[in-house]
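Following up on my earlier message about K7E. Here are the inputs again, as you asked, copied directly from the submission form:
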Amino acid sequence: MISKGASSIVKSAVQASFLLSMALLLFLPGCAPKPKVHQRGDIAQAAAATYVAPGDLDQYYIFYSGGQSGSVFVAGLPSMRPILTIPVFAPYPATGYGYDQESKAMLGKYTWGDVHHPALSQTKGDYDGRWLFVNDNANNRVARIDLHDFKTKEIFGPIPNVSGNHGGAFVTPNSEYLLAASRFSVPLPKGTYLPIEQYATNYHGVVTGLAVDAKTGHISLGWQVLMPPLDFDIGSLGKAASEGWAFWTSYNAERATGKLEVTSTQRDRDYIVAVNWKAAEQAIKSGKYKMIDGAKVIDPRDAPGVAFLVPCSKSPHGVDVTPDGKYFVGSGKLVGITTVFSFAKLQQAIAAKNFTGNEDGIPVVNYDAVKEAEVNVGLGPLHTQFDDKGYAYTSLYVESAIAKWKLGTWEVVDKIPVSYNIGHLAIPGGDTVHPDGKYVLALNKLSHGRHLSVGPAQPEDTQLIDISGDKMKLLYDAFTEPEPHYAEMIPADRLHPIEVYAQAENHDPNAVWDVQHTGIKREGNHVVVHMTAVRSNFEPNKIEVNQGDLVTIYLTNIEQTTNEIHGWALEEYNIQIAADPGETKTIEFVADKPGVFAYYCTKFCSALHQEMQGYLLVKPKGGAGTKTASTHGSHEQLASAGSR
Ligand code: K7E
Ligand code: CUA
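Thanks, got it. Here's what our run produced:
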């Protein structure tokens, strides 16, 4: 445990004590300051700055994490127009996701996820436009979206030993790893029971390195580092000067349980954990790990140099690394300052063993030796982003504002109110070595009625702010489903998505491209159908099976024309899939309901779309047309008796 106090942070905490009690008060629902609803600049200027004329294209893609929707939302910048929802952890009938065998297999038994942090893949510290990774805080997974077709291709997890996969996904500068820290601590391996009284001694968190295949993007379990029972929060990866390191804030240095609101806010400081992931790789290579639940886990006691703790203001949420990698900025939610730490000073302090104690074998570095500056940003600082001109932008949750401050002079030079409690903020290229300096998005919690009323369930509000001049200017309000926590933005010209799946690239062994090759085969009680969809028919358009048969349909949309998507829905069987041009999808179900059921195309694909239909005829077990042997409700028996 830490022994010597970190003097200046205590001083800051005292200075800020009135702020602190104010902040605590303001955290209470209903007490948040109501900002001016109509803060806005020159309307004509703002309109011109965000207007994208019909047929013109936006300059950037925005990828919003969709929070508890389990999805990713895509929009354009600066118009802020929504373009697409990419379903990831939850079924989404709009695109048939979660109904075909391919996506059902990825989802497994889960039907939702909690997506907080999108991470675009990087090469040399810049977004390379290949993949988008997202975390799932709830079911401890990560997923990979391929940006060549904007589809979810892989879901990895639940990750062993991880409880609350919140502190990710963060991608290393050459996409070697996705790094994440666990939010909750539990007895390890997961599935172990230990009384809560043993929390401080026998519960653990972990930092995880998930390896990403450089060619395919395939995710696999790399290694883990055992952590004390702190609640790890948002992180940021070292880059340029600090490449090879990763940083996360943590709260609950008290190792408390119960009402954390009170019990975890007793001390004046919490920690930022600094992990040298290249040293972790080395420790694994030299065998300094033990296996826990199939994962190679490094105990920092056995591998000095892998992890260090840096004290920071209490109850921090975010830590962010500057584009040059020289500084990392950590904010305590209950203190009105944000602290800038020097990466070079951290290295010096480590070399000089300037430690004040340790937590379970992880050295605690002397705060004063690592601190570069304390910036008086305002109330409730959460996250910081950087532009291309040496300015930092910190979101102030309690104050509902963004503070702009200068690296080097550490002075706040501007502040802009936002509509309501701001969480993350995001600048295009914000997590790279080359951020842009045109815009910042304020991702506000709730929308505070800045739209036509839709009753008590409010959407989330994202505000677009111009940061190209000295003064920040509010441009636009946009709304999304709950709940984007963070967003990443990439210049539009860096992505080149396909518009159809080329026939030559469809390697599904069950794809059929010619009506002659379609057909129905029976193997025992398994009926296998090879089907084509093209304007405006399905072939075959009649499938006869016996009640209880397993039916597998390989549906290929043989169109090679942009936009010619066909859906395939089977009434009363709860099936809706969609096949994009050139795509093959697998549909599988047990024909447990007897009778005659129509299948039809769900996408208005041509003038004869309505005619794009067929019949599944299910002969009841007791013989055609009889009511016997049905285990279903009486009207279904009637249907099977031929009343349709
Ligand atoms: Cu909501 Cu990054 Cu999960 Cu901050 S997080 S606000
Ligand atoms: Cu195909 Cu409608």
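One observation from looking it over: Residues 1-37, 628-644 have pLDDT under 50 and may be disordered. Hope that helps, and feel free to reply on this thread.
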